[in-house]
Amino acid sequence: xxxxxxxxxxxxxxxxxxxxxxxxxxxxxxxxxxxxxxxxxxxxxxxxxxxxxxxxxxxxxxxxxxxxxxxxxxxxxxxxxxxxxxxxxxxxxxxxxxxxxxxxxxxxxxxxxxxxxxxxxxxxxxxxxxxxxxxxxxxxxxxxxxxxxxxxxxxxxxxxxxxxxxxxxxxxxxxxxxxxxxxxxxxxxxxxxxxxxxxxxxxxxxxxxxxxxxxxxxxxxxxxxxxxxxxxxxxxxxxxxxxxxxxxxxxxxxxxxxxxxxxxxxxxxxxxxxxxxxxxxxxxxxxxxxxxxxxxxxxxxxxxxxxxxxxxxxxxxxxxxxxxxxxxxxxxxxxxxxxxxxxxxxxxxxxxxxxxxxxxxxxxxxxxxxxxxxxxxxxxxxxxxxxxxxxxxxxxxxxxxxxxxxxxxxxxxxxxxxxxxxxxxxxxxxxxxxxxxxxxxxxxxxxxxxxxxxxxxxxxxxxxxxxxxxxxxxxxxxxxxxxxxxxxxxxxxxxxxxxxxxxxxxxxxxxxxxxxxxxxxxxxxxxxxxxxxxxxxxxxxxxxxxxxxxxxxxxxxxxxxxxxxxxxxxxxxxxxxxxxxxxxxxxxxxxxxxxxxxxxxxxxxxxxxxxxxxxxxxxxxxxxxxxxxxxxxxxxxxxxxxxxxxxxxxxxxxxxxxxxxxxxxxxxxxxxxxxxxxxxxxxxxxxxxxxxxxxxxxxxxxxxxxxxxxxxxxxxxxxxxxxxxxxxxxxxxxxxxxxxxxxxxxxxxxxxxxxxxxxxxxxxxxxxxxxxxxxxxxxxxxxxxxxxxxxxx
Length: 793
Fold this sequence. Notes:
five-stranded antiparallel β-sheet; disordered C terminus
């Protein structure tokens, strides 16, 4: 090995060694030659010798192959030998002509060195030319071997080189059929595509072009290609052509598949979606047979539901029906479904007989569709699944999975809404929480769930309802208090939490919790719902969304139950007050009135007048109590309001007279037609009196005035009460009719206020609203339905 390395090194540095030899000869001749010779006379041969040494070193940097280096060295020796003959002849004649021998030898040495340099240069260029020839041959060989068609044509568009792939692509047998011929004259473009696409001009301007064209074979067949043109400085143009028929076919099938699966996004029938998938697999994918199994979780088997026509024909040929294709434990299809990974069986018959159906299939592709089922596409022949078909199957299965997820989500929401109606019908917190947990488990698929509600003290969250599966996981449920749990934090801040692995979260109540995934969602002021799983990353976006819907509906139901409980307590109080007025106060007033009437009959003078005053006040108070009872009946809803025709004109004028006698300084303008009759009850006087009194009491102008009018149409009568006071602010125009409002809602007259007015007008089937008066003040509009009969009260 060492000898071989030395030999290789000698060949690489052979030219330098020859130059070094000439350096030694020059130095030796200077040292041992004629003593009268001047050193400067040997400067030229030394420079030439060193030049040869340097040229040899420059050649060594190219690391030529040993054979190439030897060839350059041979040329160096040959050049030296050729000029050695010349050097001998010139040296002989120089000596015979009387020139000193040293000087003659110096001239001969110059000739030798020049010969060596010339030979080395010729050898190097010869080697380089040979290398270029070999490189060109290798390039041509590579071009001939490439799958793409490659051709070169000159500036006139004539072929000067083509490879075999180009010939095959265009249907030619021999290169001679193209070489020297013009590109355009060969009819290789479909419809003059080069010029239709302005390719020729682009190449001239830019020197390059890449794109897609339709070209034509020798037999006239048109096909698509991807083409690259590159123009050299010499004017020659190289073109690389690649047929893209398969790619275009794949793109077309992908587009057809995408168009076919668009309907999956709007279809609401799963059977229709699966049938469409069967049609797609048969018409677009190269595997003509297809079947879909739905997974039966309870029985742990795959049940066939749909199959393409060709699959049904094959089953019939084999003496089977679709119902016979049930996949049970131990069969290949069930294993693939549970793996969740698509699997191609290139040879279906290689599967053990006990694990497959006796069908004449070659290749089968199994594609699980989430947890919904398994789809299989098959062919009678054994063949590989092309990359295009793999992509098509992936699009189809993803589209099915997305559609099934959407349908499942829609069904879950529909079921959730059904359960929410049950929840709304629940009357107490415990029942609402129990319904919510049943919904979480049975409808939404959250087996580990629980609800914690705040206690009466507002200091503890106590468990009120949990699923059975949660009972199996937890031996005891905690009570959460302030600052010691994520649940209390969610409740206090109103923030929902989603944890992929709660065991790594700071602030959890139990450091050794079995839970991994957890959703904690506040229920407003009422508590929290906790949904968990012992597996990490168990909840996706859909799960989180459905859990929030459940929590929102639970919060609404809890709020409604609380409101109904408050109303029930309020009604109980009103009923108690009504009973108190009806029995105790009213009975007491009857006793007082009877005694006052007895005294008035027996007394005279001032004593009689006092007794009569007591009697009149008893009448007033008894009438007031009856009105209050009627009002309480309306508010409590204990008895229906009985309506009958009432003369609105008469009642309104009486109330105006009453108020006007109390406020003689107020200017009243009254326009009321006679005998306007509406459907109302005896409280109508209180309703109208409150509105008129309200207009007077809140009129703070220096010259107060009240304008009252009544207008009618075919169905209603409208009372208009306008004042010139400060008016009602815009923000208060609706609020003044609410309970506990002040300002224009202040009670007046017998103390019922605008809240009572609004409630009674609504009972009559009418309406009330307030507007701004011009230039100042407020205008109240009260609308009443006219009575169906024209009678007076």
